[in-house]
Fold each of these.
Amino acid sequence: MIEVQHISKTFQVSRRGAGFSEAFKALFHRQYECIKALDDISFRIEDGEMVGYIGPNGAGKSSTIKVLSGILTPDRGTCSINGRIPWKERTAHVNEIGVVFGQRSQLWWDVPVIDSFELLRDIYRVPRRLYDSNLEELVTLLKLEELVRTPARQLSLGQRMRCEIAASLLHSPKILFLDEPTIGLDAVSKIAVRDFILEQNRKHKTTVILTTHDMQDIETLTKRIILIGKGKILMDGSLEHIRKRFSATKKLTVEYRGKHIIPCDGMELCSSSNQIASFEINPDKLGVSDAIAHISSQVEVRDLSVESASIDKIVANLYQQYQI
Amino acid sequence: MRLYFKFFVMHLKIAMQYKLSFLFTTIGQFLVSFNVFLGVLFLLQRFHEVKGYGLSDVVLCYGIILMSYSIAEMFMRGFDMFAGTISNCEFDRMLLRPRSCIFQVVSGKLEFTRIGRMLQALVMFAYGITKSDVQWDMKRTVTLLLMVLGGSVVFGCLFLIYASICFFTIEGLEFMNILTDGAREYGKYPLDVYGKGVFRFCTYLVPYTLFQYYPFLYLTGRTDRQWYMLLPVLGCLFLLPSYLLWRVGMRHYKSTGS
């Protein structure tokens, strides 16, 4: 169980304008600005939960992950993960977590991946039998048979990411932190990674905390979302809840034959050209089937489609609404 | 220790992968030190002695310093490269592993090319030992070993201090090289040739004389005080302040980047 209470962290960032003279000035008189990376963060995550941690760039996602994994010590606040304070009992804590930074590698660059795995086994003191069964499972699920004998530097990004995830799970951690695990991956690799994470959570009850900008990741993997912006937690709730709250409208597109359609109460014409019209429907006032009935009573409908707003749009709206 | 051995084997494997680079760097290291050796040779062929120390003394002294320096550099290379480790966030990765950070930094990098320098040190040992009129008995051999070991420890500490400072500056500090590379070059002469100020600095601030000058006096029979041979062990106390500084640095650490 992860319990975070009132965590704050400030960084000093030096600022200066462009150009040599500014740089020279900064040599003698430096202007510092305090940036609140984390500002009174509190949340609680139960065992076996999968949580999406989202927010725009620079919102404090990575800082939170660093605090939770024991790399950063916060200025204020407490945090207990399975009863331990990460930055105080570092070695005991990191034995139970796995961390994947999408942008950085934990494999040794020049040696075959399997050598890195063996080394990690020794670092984490994983018993031989456990290691063998874990390795076998990971290799089959992530399809690594051939990759593990290649040096890490010769792997493609998608291949490397699969190896990274395997590397972080060799010591069967209870909590897995994924910092942008699908960044830069192609569609096939993305799906493979997602399926694997789902499977891992289902089978081993691994708690997964995922930061990402890919809303597809969030949609397939997590039920709960924590939204952070400017170091503050803005929202914490289920995906459905957010959907309901922020994307009430549905989009109805009709291809028809006949004269103009006159919209009724609860629907609004967005665009209309060439016998194709699209409407925005507010489901609080008007059911979708009623809207369709209303339209087909006026014209002959040849084709129609109903869409709810995409999650990308919802999140963009969210960011806009909170002005982050 | 078993884990360290594994790392050792892995670095060996990597070094073997880039064999041409390894070969040339090793030869280069050898030649650079050999140059310095030639310099000493020509100088002393003309002047015969520096403050009472003859060629064989200087060569032996240089051999000892060079040997301890290369040992320290080969095994402590991780600290020497620590600025890079911090700025590319590799240190974050180390913090995520359940082992001590010092161990991980040390085992993260091994510089086998320093074997070139060691070879040179061995050549000079051979030359110095055969030419000098030291009576080689058990005690003097032990003294020699202690000098090399003590020297490696002191140089290792200097690398550790260098790394600790990186916690505050993120970038490396070249002035520390005076204490490491500088000492390697100047340490070829017994340290009393440089006058009192330098000598004091090299005793009380950084304990070079404890593994170089004093035991060397005993080694070459310039003094009868046998306890001088144990002074390199005292020099190892330098570990304490270095380790303390490292701890302070660790507490100060802020990770870089996202």
Amino acid sequence: MSKSERPSRLFRNLNAKVASIPMILTALVVFVGGTAWTVLYSFTNSKLLPRLNFVGLDQYYRLWATPRWLVSIENLLIYGVISLVFSLVIGFVLAALLDQKIRFEDTFRTIFLYPFALSFIVTGLVWQWLLNPDFGIQGVIRSLGWTSFNFDPLYNSSIVIYGISIAALWQGTGLIMCLMLAGLRGIDEDIWKAARVDGIPMWKTYLFIIIPMMRPVFITTLVIIASGIVKVYDLVVAQTSGGPGIASEVPAKYVYDYMFFAQNLGQGFAASTMMLLSVMIVIVPWAYLEFGGRKRV
Amino acid sequence: MRYKLLTAALATTAALQFAGPATATDLEVTHWWTSGGEAAAVAELAKAFDATGNHWVDGAIAGSGGTARPIMISRITGGDPMGATQFNHGRQAEELVQAGLMRDLTDVATKGKWTEVVRPKSLLDSCTIGGKIYCVPVNIHSWQWLWLSNEAFQKAGVPLPKNWNELVAAAPALEKAGIVPLAVGGQAWQSSGAFDVLLAAVGGTDTFLKVYKDKDAKFAAGPEVAKVFKAADDARKMAKNTNVQDWNQATNMVITGKAGGQIMGDWAQGEFQVAGKTAGKDYTCLPGLGLNEVIATGGDAFYFPLLKDADKAKAQEVLAETLLDPKTQVAFNLKKGSLPVRGDVDLNAANDCMKKGLAILAKGAVIPWTDQLLSQDSQKQKEDLFSEFFAKPEMTVEEAQKRFAAIIATAD
């Protein structure tokens, strides 16, 4: 490249570059800067106000010795596996069923997507009532005569996290279904015809041809579901507020409670840094595989 | 641009205020008193302040103190302080004072001879940091009460308990009659508070102070405190069928006779009053659970952020004086159901339970409360432990005590 070309590359498309400066600044200052600040202060003993008084890894030792944090992590894992597997499976199956050129497709799509229009707080409250043993499902079935019927997940420490997952699935699968449906509609009709000519059964076509072709859609849904898992907070607050006892606590709630109720910023920052770390462990290898390889091509 | 407009508007208002007469100053006061009885009590404070020629701008924040405090703190630290704000006196605002964000009220206090009129003295002590006074206590709320439903015990056919031990003994009879012996709501602070009350009542004042004031972890792991955990185990067994979350729902179980009793602070009395119940006839209150008649001097206080505006600073002084005025104290505390912070006021209108409280106060049987002794951080850890203990029957008493001692060891 000659010397005269360099500045012209920098100034090419100047308007677009100027226009993106605010976003770049936001990303750098708010996201990266805020993250760095949080990580830095997680090594201090800041209480109500941030103070640079370093205590090494003390906050992290305390965090991992706290029963409530360990319960939170365990709950997040259970909740994560359930919402990942079930949203993908239910979402895809619903989409595949809707794709059979059925009648009233629009109506069904609206019904399935409708819960997504509700916030997690409303979803949580609705399901809190539905799962309440006195007024909800258990109460209704008992009043029909089956008096030994027992279904009170929100009041039973050992299964409360599943009760929360039910509400999350009800709210979230509609969106996954729509994304999947869009992916299915993007598949060329000719592929179906070719598969039919070759006599491949429908389930095999889905499993071995269509799903591999829908890889980009799956990756998008995966990212959406995964980010929803890590940040789950409002649903728990609305349904159980962490109870019974501490049986349904989640990490995001620990962070909030310790930063604002306990007035212990250091501890809250340490917990949020651990959350960031867990996200990084998932995202970094994936990003490396996804974007790292492209440069070599 | 919006920001600029706002600054311009603020500047204009400031200029206008500066030009106008100095008497009518608006002062925003934030607090979390939003329930019926509480709002009526705050209205008394506002009325008294407006009568001084200033104007009380009400900044009520709905939700409990847990919701309101982060909002108040972020406004003060974020450079948008209000004129005055409620906190529970003790250590909630400690760091704000240390950071120099709060106003020193020592000169107002000296003028009003607060050290002489405020009773008990510990109230003013918890407003004092480094020899200077930073807050105005307005009431005393004590946690040490056992509320009993007379109706429930009649139905179960057992005599009304005179103390905690008799309630434990009566529990099987109550359960047989389909009554929950003890109502404890699901919120974490309720189980944690109930334990603290048991610590002071079953363990005694010295035990309470040794654990929370001296933070003696070895003592907290010892046999004296083990007795208290045994009582907490009784409490958890009696409370296992409660199934409600909020404290007032639990109180309502006592009011309607569905529960035998509840360990709750004197604010529960407002609920009985609203329900039209009479102390002694429909319900009974046992201070100190009938075992150790002390009351803790927790409560509410007003703090004044440091303001640049001279007029507002003047109004802050007026408000501080108004809050401690004998007339305001009586009007406010009668509505609130709490005890006044002055010993020299007349409370003839007080009901039976309040009079019991006043008598204990006059005897000087008071202890400081956890808000004054422990940081919010330690309190939260304690809440986590006891909400788990009360909700999880398989957690043993020994394990709970071990974890309690560990919290006390690191408490500050």
Amino acid sequence: MARLAEEWFAICAGCEVTILDIGEPLIDLLKQVTIVHMPVLMDHKLYGQTGEGTELEIPEADIGIITGGIRNEEHRKIAREMRKKCKTLIAMGTCACSGGVPALANLYTTEQLCDQVYRDGVTTVAGATPTEEVPALTDRVYAVSEEVPVDLQLPGCPTTPETVAAALTALLKGESYAPMAKSVCDECPAVREKKAVSTLKRRLEAPAFTPGRPLSEMRCLMEQGFLCLGPATRGGCGGSQGTPRCIRAYMTCEGCFGPISERANPMVDMMGALSSIGLDPKQIPDRAATFNRFAGAGGRLRPLPGRK
Amino acid sequence: MSKTLVIQPVTRIEGHARITITLDDAGEVERARVNVIELRGFERFCIGRPVEDMPRITPRICGVCPWSHHLASAKACDAVFGATPPLTGRLLRELCNSVAYMEEHILHFYFLAAPDFLLGPDADPAIRNVIGVLQAAPDIATRVVRVRHMCATMLEILSGKAIHPQAAVPGGFSKPLSTEDRDRLRPMADEALELAQFTIAFAKEHVFPKYLETVKTLGVINTGFLGTVGDDGSLQLYDGKLRLMRPDGTFDEFAYDRYADYIAEHVEPWSYLKFPYAKQWGGFSMDLAAPQGIYRTNTLARINVCERIPTPLAQAELEEFRASFGRPAQLTLLYHWARLIELLHNAENVVRLLAHPEISGTDTRVKVTPRAARGVGCVEAPRGTLIHDYTTDADGLITSANLIVGTTHNSAPINMSVTQAAKGLIHGGRYDQGILNTVEMSIRAYDPCLSCATHALNGRFAVRLDIVDATGQVIDTLTN
């Protein structure tokens, strides 16, 4: 029986819910593994079951999963312990792979973050930033691979049940698994004619589509003038249905599967994609944070001098 | 010799917390604290973002109740833009909200709470989990896995994406519901309603009667309550006015955009989570003997503040509940019972909305125009009243954001319940993993994402515990 350990860092638990969304096949999958550590479902504690331990302790496992990016010093320690104890280590979800939405915080210093939360805001009675019995925040949000080597990255915000099931099934058989290498556009059925029919528009109105008709009859949303991160974003979000999830709701891609490859620069990729169909990237407000909304770790987003 | 116990992590909850218990020289509990050890700082990094992106960014606060953030955010955007969604757009939002509630209440009761009902709070921690439940009750577990997954499928049909949805937009909803899709959803809604009816009947027969004695003692505190009601005082989850009830049952009502007149947030140095309190009640104190400003949210709060529930099966359950426990009901573990009443209400509401003649209309959103404005959006998230408050500049970029989320309201009550539980259960330096897990149970009751390890389905506990409450009286209900 393969042993599985799971930990979560700066997370929302959406990836953990995605595991449950595997549905009935999950029951068979669970018969093939012994979960040795997983705070969301299991009662194994980090410092002993009665809280008297002094050393962080995670049992040995064949497969380890980490969700979430590194946001505090304790995440760092747990990441190292997971790496030490797990034969294969998976970074699951975009936050673990490239920072995700929480890495938008990398636009600001940790001090600015805490000023806002504990000393600003219409309802907050100002107090000092908490420091007792809580781990110190790191200077920024890190992807897991910035702290320890990772064997497999499964991006997505959240990732898909199909991806999780396929990856675990492959690993349990001793086979390898790789996420899709294509872009969201490669999976999108909308009609592309390589030419925009409008200047850039904010998403403040509905795009043109005929309710009830297939998406293959709808003009590409970016060619309709709505900024879509499909060209710079890794595909696979549609799972077995193929069609990207947001496109099904007539919404543009926001980039939630992260950059197409680990080294890609979404800013550069998007500038090129926009220009090639005749759109002017300068019209986009909040460009850096929009293009890197899910990729702020790894130095892609950083505080700018003078930004308040 | 004094001693500190650190229970870390609190498990089978959504998110990161630990409990720090300090024992004095005699081995009595001097202090117990729930340290929330996570901070991401959404209120900071939302500044500068285009306001129309907020319904896409803020669901990432919580992957268990992303729909609540999505909808509160879309409503705040409506207010910023001064837009009123068309009827169909509003109905689709409300439908998604109720489907999401079903999914979450099922998740909590069966996936997270059931391990303790079936296996006992003092069971071997290695099997006290959902896998243990699968082995103990495979038929029910398989049915539940199926229906919960079906709820996710319904959300996918409605919006393209079940977790971190995109379809609620400023001014409405981006995806009309075709009549074909509506007809696919109806049998699913019927099956979910059947499960909701089965669940509350099952719990009333096999679960609640056996843990009522524990309900009367564990984590019990006396507080006020906050929830949303309609003009007629009925339970409302998508829209309404806020009702803030004092412990004696009297209450104030106000439009949700006036929340800052009634609620303030206190900061403690030992938790990243802030502590909201009712600021007109004379200050803030978590002193168990003389609490001040403390109110609770989430299922029990909503069931307490409403006059009635606008669907018949859930209304009948409310009447039965009230006849047994009065109003407001204060016992912390009744959160579980209230949750199943809400599960039933939402299942009824989904069937009702799918029968609405306008649900398949194609007029689902209006165009909006940026302006400098402030807008407040509020829904009842499964975990409690959820407030999003945005201010924008003339370009529609966020200049300030204030968020108060469901669980945050319960920050002080959770600490008080844990303190009460620890002081009642740990004496003379004696404790074991079962006692400490029982302390954790008083946290789990508060959150639909939290497991309640309190109550044994079979009414038996694995060992005999010498347990004494805060007044020194022996509680024999935790023994065989």
Amino acid sequence: MKEKLTTIKQAITLVNDGDIVALQTMATVASPMALVRELIRQKKQNLGLVVLVGGIPVDWLAAAGVIDRLIGAAVTMEQFGLCQQYRQAVEQGRIRVEEISESVLNARLGAGARNLPFLPTRGAIGTDLMKENPDNMKLIEDPFGGLPVIACRALNPDVALIHAHRADRFGNVQYEPTAIWPDIGIMPNAAKKVIVSAEEIVDTEVLRKNPDRTVLPGFIVDAVVEIPYGAHPTSFYPNYGYDSDFHRQWTAISRDKDQVSDFLQKYVSTPVDQSDYLKLIGGKTVLKHLARWEEEE
Amino acid sequence: MSADWQNSPPADEYSIEELIISVLAEQFRNDDQATNGMGSFIPVAAFMLARMTHAPDLIWLAGTVGLEPRPKRIPASTLEAPLWKDSIMYIEQYGDAWHYLFSDRWIEKFCVGAAQLDQFGNANNSVIGADYHAPKVRLPGTAGLADLCSLGKKLYYWNLNHSPKSLVEKVDFISGAGYLDGHDTRDKLGLKNGPQLVVTNLAVMDFHKESKRMQLKSVHPGISVDEVQAATGFELLLPQGTVPETARPTEAQLGMIREDIDPDGMRNK
């Protein structure tokens, strides 16, 4: 098996300016935040994002001017409110949104993964999503005489960014039992390259004990890096919950350009590595608190 | 199940959220399956209330992820793992979740919110303003709403801020198909079911059988028909005769909501 273990810097050099990047994220759940911070540090430009439901990573990438288009079903931080930097950028025309429903996104990625020109859905028929997106959604007749369906054009992102519980050095990736959203279920399979950050890198023998937990085979993964708490401030179950205080710190200042710039300077540009970042966000005290999410709730 | 819920008297004091929860709970039958999305404290409370009263076998797929979970109370998010604590099964989103959602056998009903809803029950959670690519307000987006509306589901909308801005003659953008232009325009696309009820802080509305226009079904205690009309951005159809009053939640229902289902008051946030 080929060696895939590398540094976060090397891994993110696989992302080129202008790429379409499929990002794991679900409001406040499981997002590869360390990889996202590295995209900002390397000053990537003109990226397009593919998200199911984007949260704080989308807001940061919008704030840093890294993205100029987004394909997705929604962007929100749920109880922490709207992503204000993203919202301002869209309202000012700096980010172009191709809004699609969840079933359309799944169909587009599914077609991409299976090397088909399109897959159909019956979701979204009659909406304005189709009217605004004639290049990727077309109402077609059922060749078997049933009701019409929407043909959803294949989407193959240039690269998928994923965070997982563990991986070996050959890029075989495991996920602990928890919610599995399409961003693990289909996005990496449709993408041309896959970059994975994992809470821990383990010996392949460890994976062999629970092959049912392996979600991505090493042959589709291009780079893997070890990043403990790599999803902070989003949740990563069962390891840790989302950081409410951190989300609130962000939403308290996220409408103001100068404060946003200071915030990103502090948490994105300044930390030299992940352990430096973890100290900044409160160190062991905060991490222990986040790990106790079951008692907290 | 609480033994005395059937004979409990209507409550004198209740919040608008509690009234809406009790109206929505009524819509679920014992053989239904229910599921919820983000920020859905009111629907989740309604499912839990239905299960504690008239629908003990109502199946709940929390966040379309966790089958029959046992959260002690409603947590701070309805899309995070604490909601699907102790589930029987995790349903994979790209796989079985959409098998069940696409099916016309399962999960027939949804409770959802919309920033704008129009006289034909079309919903907008996408943009406010005429220019889609430079909108006045960028809203979160349709998420799964566009799918559910077109997959023949029955939609129950809730709205805590009944106003001419949220109940509009025509939505700026159709993120979820209602009855489109009314009459048989929805049928013609082969779309079944559609919006059933709109429950707001002032009243309950349904849709006229033929024209598919929104009509007043009941006004909440203390609210007049004129007040509801004045807060609505289009002319509401009126039922024949006197407009009935919305049933108040019972003392037993309030007890369950406040003590068992949502002691932390997530429904008010």
